[in-house]
Amino acid sequence: MNKKYRLLALDMDGTLLQDDHEVSEETRKWIKEAVRQGIHVCLSTGRSFRDAYPYAKQLELMTPMVTVNGGEVWRAPYELHRRALLDSKLVEQMHALAVETGSWYWAYAVDRLFNYENWTDDIANQEWLKFGYTTNDHEVRHNILMRLQEMGGLEITNSSPDNLEINPLGVNKATGIEQVCELLGIQMSEVVAVGDSLNDLAVIQQVGLGVAMGNAQQTVKDEADIVVSSNNEDGIVEVIRDHILIEG
């Protein structure tokens, strides 16, 4: 068997998962067929390991995972390979900005998720992975973006048009998938990456085949090599059937 692509990197929300947060039966069937034929399938998500792993287990995936937008790379389930932490002083500044602008906010620490309703007074002694803002007020969101860019040292993306997600500068899904490639002994040119939001953009631009879902943000569609059906229409099935499980 001579296949061009050896790794399928899947975003979760808006990509692998339908809007009801489930994996369709048809998508599940084709993922299992890809694995049977020797394709590595890697979840590449903004979610934490705790929130992502139940889906990997459901799909019987034992390959590496990329979580919190590249903030963590897992060699195998429960076996951490690499972790990139946010400077707690930057988290203090981002929290102050969220309070000032009246925005909903959340942040992943290594051990738990904090948010607007459940924050901590001890920012300095937490290990922070990612900070996020959500607001449907475009002007407020743009103002936050400008202020974040002034801070420096931050990788700023989103997982929906209404939010901003922040990792340490240089940490994203592309760097995460590069680590996975090293672990598996394959090249980025042998990867197919699929996503729908700006946190998928870097990896879609850097792999062999970058795929945007039909429901993707326009910027992602513009940068992708191909666009498939939406997350509610089994777009992942198209990717596997038409672009991976073919001789090449």
From TrEMBL:
InterPro entries from the UniProt entry: HAD-like_sf, HAD-SF_hydro_IIB, HAD_sf
MF (Gene Ontology): magnesium ion binding; phosphatase activity
GO cellular component terms, A-Z: cytosol
PROSITE patterns reported for this sequence: COF_2
PANTHER family referenced in this protein's UniProt entry, alphabetically: 5-AMINO-6-(5-PHOSPHO-D-RIBITYLAMINO)URACIL PHOSPHATASE YCSE, PHOSPHOSERINE PHOSPHATASE
Name this protein carries in UniProt: Phosphoglycolate phosphatase, TA0175-type
Organism expressing this protein natively: Paenibacillus solani
